[in-house]
Structures are given as structure tokens and as C-alpha cells.
Amino acid sequence: MDETLYAAVLETRGYIVGSSNAPSGLHVYTAGAGWQHRGWTNVRCFGIARHEARSMLFLAAGNGVFRSLDDGATWRVMTGWEITEVLDLALDPFDADTLWIATVHGLWRSPDLGETFLPVHPRTTQLFCQTLAADRATAGRWFVGTETGLLCTETSGAQWHAPGPHDAAIRAICQSPSDPSVWLAGTEDRGLLHSTDGGRSWATHRPAGCDTFYAVAIHPAHPEILIAGGFDAGVCVSLDGGATWRRTGDDMPVQHVHALAISPSGRFVAGTVHGGIYASVDAGASWTFAGLPEATLYDLVYA
């Protein structure tokens, strides 16, 4: 790999509380140094957000939100006892100081890069929120994945509506970097949800007969290239905007995929459960081991 990649490691196979385990938390790959662990060594990490302009990093972790001002060398816990089990987080593309977080007890928003957190609209405070994403084309518009379907706000959380299926637990969601009308979401037992009209309507895909997807990604330059990974699903790939799918990754020893990313150059990267990271340079036709043996990955972010 030749691009900087940030990886959120939940744990490594054989993890035992109180033992000397392989480091979890943030790992960073750079072309010159390979994989390096940064910061605390026992962080159960679910997600990463990177502030490009300030070299600032945020981690979603079991015991709250961590912030680093030096690209991961040192960390500070930004949340108190009332905020735990943070499963995802994202910076507001229209307000560089605002951070949103999804937790098992609802949504929170920080207007000052983690110094203070406020609960979002009461409708979300009683919901198990797994994932969230900002609409990069419309200020104040966010999608949140809950146990009972998608929620959408057009008003930064003041009001909400449900644009998708109401009986699907949403595990992952992303927007095309090059075409904001294209969205992809992974569900528990309901396959994939795909939108080409900005998230106003959603079609269902069940590639290769797989039903549960924990990770989704869209090519940075080609919105018709979609990938999804999940429970015993390998990596399912569509090169035609979801019209057809093929399952890949049979050459990966682990078929449970919990994190995906596509690099600016088009490299596919998959993070597995207890199997580390695999990469493909041929649109999933073949996969090679790319590091972090026996690690469980929950997020992958290219710089």
C-alpha cells in the first residue's frame, strides 16, 4: 500500500482482560514506516474521524470520545460518565468545529471539537444509534442508522423523519464522495439499501444471498462502484451502480468483514474479524494480506 491509512482496532484474537494483549486502538499505515500503533494500547475502538486542517483525530470508543491534537501521539478523553459506548462519529462538513457522535443511548453533538457535548433532539436520545453520516451537499442534513431504521434530519437535529424501511437495523452508511445523490447502507438481515436520489428513496439489494452487512464504501471517483462486507459475506462488489453484484474474497481465510475503504487510487481494503486487513488492486478479483494479524477492525479511513 502506498497511501496513509488509519485503522480502528477493537481487539485481537485471544484478548483476555488484564493480560498483556496486542495493542488495540489506533493503528496507522504509511508507505515509509508500515503499520505503527499510536497512543494508548487498550482502547476498544469503533470509529475514527480526522480533522484534515488541524491534524486532529477523534476516536469512538467504549468509554467515550478520545481526541488527539498531534495525529495520534497523545490522547485525551473528552467525555464524562454520561457518554459511553460511542459507536461512530463524524465532523460537520459545513462547520469545522462541530462533531457528532452516535452511541447506544442516542446522539450527541459538540460545537467546540469535543470540549462540551449536548444531546441532540429528544427523539434520538432513547435510540440505539450505530452509525451516522453528514450530507456533504446540504448543510444541516444528517442520516443516522438506528435499530429501527434510518432517521434523517434537515435541521441539524431539530426535527427528524424516517426516509427508509422502519424495520431494518442499520449498521453502516456512506455517501458517494463524488456524487452526493448516491448513498449506500448496510443492514442486519435486510441486505443493502441503495439510494440514487439523495436518500429520499431506497432500493434493497441482497448480493450473493447475503443479508447482513456491517461495512459499506463507494469509490471516491466512480459512484457506480460499490462494495459491502458483513457476516460471512466476504466483500460484495458492484461495478454498475448496484444492478449486478459479485461476491469476492474467497481467498481471504476470514469471511467476516467489519470495515471497508477505497483509496484515492482505487485500492480496496477490508478489515476482518480476528483476521487483520486484506487489500485488492483488481476490484476484488484477488486479495492479499495487508497487516495487523488476528486483529478485529471496525473502521478504516484514508488520509
Give an overview in words.
The chain is mainly beta. It is 1% helix and 47% strand. It is globular and about 45 Å long. The mean pLDDT is 94.
Q: Which sheet architecture does the biggest sheet show?
A: 4 strands, antiparallel
Strand order of the largest sheet: 3-2-1-27
SSE order = EEEEEEEEEEEHEEEEEEEEEEEEEEEE
The amount of beta strand, in percent, is: over 45%
Uncertain residue segments: none
Shape field: globular
Tell me the number of strands: 27
Individual helix count: 1
Helix content: under 10%
Derived structural class:
mainly beta
Distance between the termini: 13 Å
Radius of gyration: 18 Å
Report the average pLDDT across residues. 94
Concise structural overview:
The protein has 303 residues and is an all-beta fold.
Question: What descriptors fit this protein?
Answer:
four-stranded antiparallel sheet; 303 residues; mainly beta; 1% helix
